[in-house]
Amino acid sequence: MKLKIKSLSLQNKPGKELELNEKIFGLDPRVDIIARVVRWQLAKRRLGNHSVKTRSEVKMTTAKMYKQKGTGKARHGSGSVSQFRGGGMAHGPVVHSHSHRLNKKVRKLGLKSALSDKFKLGKLLIIDSLKCDGKTSSLKKNFDKLGVENALVISGEKN
């Protein structure tokens, strides 16, 4: 079975018919793989730069607050502990990366599954050329004629 799709121009006029690669656009979409790839991409974007000072990072004296006995108060050492005002926080958030690894084969399969899903749902548009006057407003008008609300534009030559 050959997969074919008609290309369009920016003015919504039909173009030539193209043949799509079955290895990319003919797969059964794997929702679990797409979810893994999306989770991987979102995890890479997370900053993870929240932080608090711990007891060792607070600028405070390490001397004993007052003498051990005879004051009628509880015994205390340094004032940098978490129960005092201005002290460090115990087990607070630290700076770390949320990114994790994902195999290249899984990444490629996720992209192929997403493209196959778009093709099967009829949401894949191939435009002959994106030649316009360079204005975003005119490109938006052309996309409105095509009925496109959001788009991923991939530019390249077919080898």
Describe this structure in words.
The protein is α+β, with helices and mostly antiparallel strands and 159 residues long. It has a domain of 41 residues. Helix content is 30%, strand content 8%. It contains four helices and two strands. Strands 1-2 form a two-stranded antiparallel ribbon. A hairpin with a 5-residue loop joins β1 and β2. The protein starts with a strand and ends in a 13-residue tail after the last helix. The relative contact order is 0.21. The model has no long low-confidence stretch (mean pLDDT 89).
- The SS-based structural class is alpha+beta
Strand segment count: 2
Radius of gyration: 30 Å
Into which percent range does the helicity of residues fall? 25-40%
Unreliable runs: none
Strand content: 5-15%
The total count of helices amounts to 4
Q: What layout of secondary structure does this protein have?
A:
Blueprint: E1 3-8, E2 14-20, H1 22-25, H2 31-45, H3 104-121, H4 136-146
Antiparallel strand pairs: 1-2
Features:
two-stranded antiparallel ribbon, elongated, 2 strands, 159 residues, 4 helices, alpha+beta
What would a concise description of this structure say?
This protein is α+β, with helices and mostly antiparallel strands and 159 residues long. The protein contains 4 helices and 2 strands; from the N terminus they run ββαααα.
